[in-house]
Amino acid sequence: xxxxxxxxxxxxxxxxxxxxxxxxxxxxxxxxxxxxxxxxxxxxxxxxxxxxxxxxxxxxxxxxxxxxxxxxxxxxxxxxxxxxxxxxxxxxxxxxxxxxxxxxxxxxxxxxxxxxxxxxxxxxxxxxxxxxxxxxxxxxxxxxxxxxxxxxxxxxxxxxxxxxxxxxxxxxxxxxxxxxxxxxxxxxxxxxxxxxxxxxxxxxxxxxxxxxxxxxxxxxxxxxxxxxxxxxxxxxxxxxxxxxxxxxxxxxxxxxxxxxxxxxxxxxxxx
Length: 271
Fold this sequence. Notes:
By secondary structure, the chain is mainly α. The protein contains five helices and no strands.
């Protein structure tokens, strides 16, 4: 089949779009991986502040009278105010991770569209059409995995906000109370709830981080395969211009020797 320069250029542009999409997807996944570690460490640094509330609850309960109880209760409320502000920063950091994954999904949609069109171009060989279709399924899988990760991060952010709500209840408690049992319960309830929320969020982040790390070689493999396809398409449509694409900076060659032959790669983010 005769191929016009315009058709050859269109095919080349589509392969470039696919490579760009995969590279952006990799950037989003790796940024999210690094970010989950950072947020987890932020929460780890708050452990002493959370534990302090439990200590204050015990101090209040062991107070001899309301006068002795007052400073302990006041300190617990001050700590709740500080901790609530710290958790607001954690919530904001999680939101940034969700935004990063959204950018990755947007790139994936562009790349999937490009590969879908490429796979239907009659100017391409049947093998190249099939490879474009397989890469499109792989790219779509990355997008779905990033969406699930984003939803999981949103739930983590909701849990952080729930913890902040429990601290707000403590912040709003009246210092005028003389009931040390009630005061101690108020502080203890805040500690128990916040500790449970923080623990759950950290476990969520650590699980996501492991999934992101495991996905890196899969994304690198897909990038390498997209470059191979681009080179093959260019060579096939422009025999006088052999393929010359190389791996983009930051990508590795992992998985290059075990290229899959099925309909698409399985994406593992362990979500």
